[in-house]
């Protein structure tokens, strides 16, 4: 099992995530696989995602922390940097990954991305176009989606 | 009894004429009809066509219900529902069968009533008349009317509340009797009604009666003596062995109807249950000490078992195995001298000691099912044996606790195939097990093994291969295993599965390879990431070795759609090595072990009980020793009484264990009274060391500080809330006894002599860069902060491994990381980004930070021997001359670090074994230590060396610091003093005088007593506080 050879670093990170969770973020490892985390991020205030609870999955690959974790939104979200499969366009998850980053910092970055969508570096062309052409309407759609898919659950 | 006796004689007389096809009941009825005239009775039988069909037309409706044999049940072909595994029970059933066969010859239509109902016995009931002016002649038949059960307020048979409540509730419990001639005559007393009612309702029992004596003319409340015969329906035994949880969890005051009825009938068991609820609940009846087969328990005073150890403690001469002794008191030592020996097969390539041959014989016997004669014929201590009045000579066993009845002999050994080999450490449990593997190994559930297959089917644990129905997967009968109840397509047949702690895998493999003739046992190691999930692969090997960790993880992964693994195999045999690993019954490991499907199960452990009697429960559950595998039973009959201080529960536990456990100790003797194993003697000494003056000052200062903190907790009454902090305080004190450096390393300030130099160099590097790219240079303030941090010896952690720095380096951007972590994050070996700020840096630019050791001071340069280290070196020096190898145990790897310095300086060759090594490295170390003559010492952390490892190459062991649990210490030391050891063994424990270590010795001794004693939660709490106070006294 993956669990038996879990690196100390992952254990430590997990313990800290559980003991001192970052505000608006919860991440807990799956019982079966300690490298797999169930994540919940609260939509940041003053963003179109406010009031929403977004579920994500996070997986630490074998090479972690030398390789970035794999993160994906499970909850549908209307965001220019997140596609319909929930994949996230974020540099630190790709070429800007550094082993000094942690699960916590990654999730905080994602939370920040919700506050500040970046339509210039889009993953979802349509949404980005929408965002650029009519931001007010796009924000409304994002709010609508938040209410539809990310409330309660 | 007069009438019933006459009746018996008459019945015999009539039977001799009419033949066996008529049951006692028929004949009795005919006699009644003929007013006890045998000739008339015979005429009635022969003249009435289909006489057996009861035709009593005048009988009122309710009577009919109770009296007439139930056609439905009578037609039931399976009269004897007992699924017997027991030869004794078989015989009885044969008799029943005979009776039934012959009767069906006579009248095939509906004839089996007689064999369906077994006469339990006859007795007298003092009924009370409820009528006036009616008459009842002696000998006249009476019929009983039982009240119809009322749904709303169904009377519970056991309720016996006094006063008005009883009056009301019992109105529906009145059993009346009547005659054909007069109608209702009277009612029978409550005590009879109460136990008859539920039994008659469930059609388990029926009762016939006639008047024995009554006043010529009846008045209200006149007493009428009835003579009754009680019959029991054999269908009651169809589900004989369902030790019902329900019964066990009932209120303790429940009166079970059947035993009560037996009592009322004046039946007394010909073999009494050794334990009855009365014993446990009232504690009144003194135990018959002479009868008890195991004499150690009576030594225990009541009610507190813990005082027993103190009592015995004074008698104990054998210092060597204190905990062994206690254990023996609890579980009993088998008088093994009587056991037969069995020669191992020639494929075992070593000579077995006689006691090992005995173990082999014992194990093979247990596996065969018809276990040791003695075990099979030992009545389960909770059961009474009754001989029924029935002519067929039936024997019924009643469980005094649950009221369950069975016709099958309830021996102490039920269902379990296998047991607990609990020989104390060093007697060679591994080799005995290997002998067992070689003597008999097949594949689980193989048809060649009929006996096993049958029994297991009866057990419901697993069924024949040909019957791999979904229901067969009942191995997980323990509640909470829903996921295992999932239908499983089928189980692969597997060989032997051995589960052991990780450290022992290599040893098992090595021992099997050394002792089994090559080619006889194929081994597969089921361990590691890449292990096969394919059940067929697992099933192929004769022996599969795995760890408890793998077992637990495959168990918890079971709900995933992973097929394969340990749970997809039906094992021929499962062996748990160091089986006390599963002792806590709620742990994953324990549940996982119990859920394995296997034909034979063995526990190997030198300590079947480590802390509590409860430890046993887990083993019994794994072994499927029914009914003890169910918590309700165990808790009710053993655990709870034990916790309440009833020593009899211990005796019960012993009698459960007796047939399934073999335990010998090093001091056990054979038939001739010689010790079974002659080991070279072991000399155990305690070396008391004095602190040097400097050490004493340091220790006292530390102690004073700790005591102030402790006293504050005491004052606040919050000792247990601060348990962790107190243990931390103690830890420092204990480490101080080993070497003050250990405490200093824990953040006590220590100036770095070269720190200023470092700052200068560091800032100089900064300046060099200023010329080029000014913006990348860390600010002066930042650098100063970093340096200050270093100066203060702040712990800090590497941002990559999140651990304290190991061989820390400083980047030009003033970030601190472990050298290895940083280099590993680079793609190239010479340069890369700083993981923290992404600045490009080269390997040359890195500075070595001065915190490379876990000690804040340069211990190599400032090396000082603590007095304990000096004492150890002195001892080792002597041994070096003799060429004798030693093992040095400490609990702290940091102390092992220090000892390495000391050994290097003294030129002592050593190896180290601690928890950081993986399995292969461990094996390598042990091998090297055993084979290379120049290596004198093995440094070992107490935990890593705890289990199984064979280190007989060494003949000396040094325990440098006392451990809370003496059993752990003992286990470690016994790695040396075990079979295979040829030299005299010397064990030395180091204790610093006048320190916490000395007080810990006292606590250890106390703990020894507590291990065996039953303490309540409250007592444990106060005991803990007591202990802590002792330490800070």
From TrEMBL, chain A:
Residues 5-151 form the UBC core domain. The keyword Transferase applies. It is an enzyme of class 2 (transferase). InterPro entries: UBC, UBQ-conjugating_AS, UBQ-conjugating_enzyme/RWD. The active site is at residue 89. One of its GO terms (cellular component) is UBC13-MMS2 complex. PROSITE patterns: UBC_1 (PS00183), UBC_2 (PS50127). GO terms for molecular function: ATP binding; ubiquitin conjugating enzyme activity. One of its GO terms (biological process) is root epidermal cell differentiation. Its EC number is 2.3.2.23. Signal peptide: none annotated. It holds the Pfam family UQ_con. Keywords: ATP-binding, Nucleotide-binding, Transferase, Ubl conjugation pathway. Belongs to the ubiquitin-conjugating enzyme family. Interacts with yeast and human Mms2, with the RING domain of RGLG2 and with UEV1A, UEV1B, UEV1C and UEV1D. Catalyzes the synthesis of non-canonical poly-ubiquitin chains that are linked through 'Lys-63'. This type of poly-ubiquitination does not lead to protein degradation by the proteasome. Mediates transcriptional activation of target genes. Required for postreplication repair of UV-damaged DNA and for adapting root developmental programs to suboptimal availability of iron. This is E2 ubiquitin-conjugating enzyme. It comes from Arachis hypogaea. The lineage of its organism: Eukaryota, Viridiplantae, Streptophyta, Embryophyta, Tracheophyta.
Automatic annotation (TrEMBL), chain B:
Residues 410-626 form the Helicase ATP-binding domain. Residues 798-838 form the RING-type domain. InterPro entries: Helicase_ATP-bd, Helicase_C-like, HIRAN, P-loop_NTPase, SNF2-like_sf, SNF2/RAD54-like_C, SNF2_N, SNF2_RAD54_helicase_TF. The keyword Transcription regulation does not apply. SMART domains: DEXDc, HELICc, HIRAN, RING. Residues 101-113 have a biased composition (Low complexity). One of its GO terms (biological process) is DNA repair. One of its GO terms (cellular component) is nucleus. Gene3D superfamilies: P-loop containing nucleotide triphosphate hydrolases, Tandem AAA-ATPase domain, Zinc/RING finger domain, C3HC4 (zinc finger). Residues 868-1033 form the Helicase C-terminal domain. Keywords: ATP-binding, Helicase, Hydrolase, Metal-binding, Nucleotide-binding, Nucleus, Zinc, Zinc-finger. It is found in: Nucleus. Its main location: nucleus. Residues 53-62, 82-100 have a biased composition (Basic and acidic residues). It comes from the Eukaryota. Belongs to the SNF2/RAD54 helicase family. RAD16 subfamily. This is SWI/SNF-related matrix-associated actin-dependent regulator of chromatin subfamily A member 3-like 2. It comes from Coffea canephora (Robusta coffee).
